[in-house]
Structure formats: structure tokens, C-alpha cells
Amino acid sequence: MDKSAKDQLVNDIENRLDDFFGDEDDPEPTAEVRPSMEKLKSAVLSIDWEITDACLNDLKSEVESLLPYYEKEPVTHALLRMLRALGGYIRKRKAQAHQDAIKRVMSVFASLESLVNNPQMDESRRRQLVSKEIIAFKKLKEQVEQRRVAASAADGAATGEKASLDVHAILEHRQFQDAVNAVEARLSSQVAALKAELASLQEEIKTLKH
Amino acid sequence: MAVVNIRKKEVQIKIVYVGPGRGGKTTNLEYLFSKIRHRIESDMVSIKTQGDRTLFFDFLPFELGQIQGYQIKTQLYTVPGQVKYNATRKLVLKGVDGVVFVADSMVAMREKNIVALKNLEENLAFYDIDLYDRFPIILQYNKRDLAENGIDILDVDTLQQDLNARLQAPFYEASAVNGVNVIATAKKAISTTIVSIQEHLG
């Protein structure tokens, strides 16, 4: 059905309904309420002040509550997903998180806020904003990976040194080795998650460019 | 699916009010009936339990009149909201053309609203209807008046997030017991349903 036919049909239906039901007030449906960014902003600012489980949980839940509203806006959605990934990383590493991770959260939120508050912003400027964030995100990911490799090497060296001193002592401290392995596995999974997030964002950027 | 009789130029549409138990579905229909009873020939049929709750369904049929040469016959139903009456709900939803989801705004009912919407999705899927694929549905956030009596109610943002984030359907804040937005909800449901039927028929 073309638009004019549809408009005509809607008009006819409304006239009939008005006649049938009388002159009762016929308000428009409540205007679509976009969720406020204020709660997310408060969660982001809390993290800047103090990294606690409560703040990070707030960030996660606020981002997740906003995601469905922006499903059809890929640029905004990408930034929200980036925030979620960064929040997840900080949540796992807390004080050991990369020093730039919080800075990234702030920057991504600033871009997000700018996008949401300026619906008239032209598409090229929107893409530019998200591209800038993706490049910085990628850089952070590389740095996290480098740190992971360095940490693994340091652990290896420490283990080697200890081994040369007393192999039996290490064998007796199997729990320590298990803990090191667990930490390594966790780091690997975080890097893998960041890689996956990045790949997905890059894919989205490609789509946007086309 | 709507019954369309091309020869007689008649279209029969079925709209079902669903939602959690004691949410105000029957009150919606009773208010509508009180407003239109003087101009319709039919009566409203309600089958209730002793506790005044809907056991089977409420049924309010009426002829809306002609739209673009077609006589529109409308049937409004409610279903019992209580979880245990799912077989009845499923049965009443057979052949449904549009839905009004009556959510209860009370904080204590938050979970039940979500469960009821999920149940609607499952029951529609039984008839190969995808609730999230342009199915005509209107949301009504009922009992907004309770806030005036000091009862905790959910804010609209929360209701939207719980129930309408994916649907993105038109919604009304209402007080069925006072008739606030009851007719507006019904009008929107009828209009959305007729347009959807027309689009399906091509």
C-alpha cells in the first residue's frame, strides 16, 4: 500500500472512530520516551572517581538498558558496545587495568553524549566520531596485549629463577603455578574478548562506509 | 486472521486484551461498553469466577460502521490473566488480529508484566505469529492513578524498558477505572489493526 493510500485509510478510520466513540479526548500516544543518559553519565563519572563493583555494575546495567533503544542507530550502538567492553575489562582487572582504560571510557561517553544530544549532526561527523574512538580503542587493546605478553615473560623469568634455586620448592608450590595459569588464562580471554569486540566494530564501520 | 467477505463487503476483526491478572483488562471493556452501549445492538458477555475474576473471557462485539465501503465488525476479547489459565488464553488468541497489552503499573507487578508479555509471545508463536514482526499491538500502562493514593508505581521509563524496548509500540498511560485513555487505547488498537490487515491483503 503506498503512503497516500495508507494516509487516506488512517484518516477514514479515525473519522469513523471519532463518530463512533463520540467526542472524547483523543490524545496522541504518550510521546516516545528516550531513556535519559543522565544515569549512564553518573555511572561513568563514578568510575572516574572510584572503581568499585557497584559503579561497574551500574555502568553495565545502564549500558544494557540503553542498547535496545539504539539498535537501529549503528554509530550510537557501536559506542555503547565499546563502553560495555571497556567496563567489562575494568571490572575484571580493576586497579590493574591499563591506566588509559578509564580515559577511554570518558572519551567514548563524551562522544556518545555528543551524538545523542545532537540528533541533527551530519552523518560524516558521526562516523568521524566513532572512527576516532575505534582507533583509540584498538590502540588500547594492543597495549593491553603487550602488557599481557610482558607479564607472562616476567612470570616465566621469575619461575625460572626460582627453579634454578630450588626446583623442589616450586613443585611443592603447585597452587602458585595453578594461580599463575589461571591469571594467564583470564588475560587471554580478556584479550580475545576485546579482539572480538574490535572485529565486530570494524565490521560495522565497513558497513557504515558502504 | 480477519474474516474478510468481499461479496458482502464485510471485515471482521478480533482484538484481544491481554496482560497480567487483575491488571484491568475487563475494566477496559466495561468502560468501553458503558460508553457505546446506547449505540450498539449487542451485549457484553462476561464469564467470571466467584471472586469476580475472569474465568473464561469477556466478549464485546460491535459494528463500527463503514470504512472505505467495507462494514467493519469488531470483536473485543479479554483473556484471564492468571498464569494457570494459559489454555484459555491460547484458545482466545486464535485468529487474533491485534492486541492491547494492559500492563499493571504497580511496582509489585513488574515481574508479572514481563512474564505476561513473554507468555503472549509464546502463545502467538503457537499460531505462527511473531509478536516482534510488525504485529499490531498497543501497550497500556494502567493504574497510573494509584500514585495519587500513595501506592508505588513504576515510572514510564521502567515500563518502557521492561516491555517496549524491543516492540517500540504505541503506548498510553491510563486509568481504566476512571476511563482515562481507555477509548484512546481502543481507537489506536482498532486503527492499527485495520491498517495492518489492509497491508497484509496488499
Q: How would you sum up this structure, described in words?
A:
The complex is a heterodimer of chains A (210) and B (202). Chain A contains eight helices and no strands. With 210 residues, chain A is mainly alpha-helical. Chain A has one domain (38-209). The radius of gyration of chain A is 25 Å and the shape is elongated. The mean pLDDT of chain A is 78. By secondary structure, chain B is α/β, with parallel strands linked by helices. Chain B has one domain: P-loop containing nucleotide triphosphate hydrolases (Rossmann fold). Chain B contains five helices and eight strands. Chain B has helices at residues 25-36, 86-92, 110-126, 156-164, 182-201; strands at 3-5, 10-18, 45-48, 54-67, 70-78, 98-104, 137-142, 171-173. In chain B, strands 1, 2, 3, 4, 5, 6, 7 and 8 form an eight-stranded mixed sheet that branches. Chain B starts with a strand and ends with a helix. In chain B, 48% of the residues are buried. The model of chain B has no long low-confidence stretch (mean pLDDT 89). Chains A and B meet through α1 of A and β4, α4, β8 and α5 of B.
Using brief descriptors, characterize the structure shown.
heterodimer, A: 210 residues, mainly alpha, elongated, B: 202 residues, alpha/beta, Rossmann fold, 8 strands, globular
A few lines on this structure:
Chain A has helices at 3-21, 38-49, 53-66, 74-93, 99-117, 123-165, 167-172, 174-209. By secondary structure, chain A is mainly α.
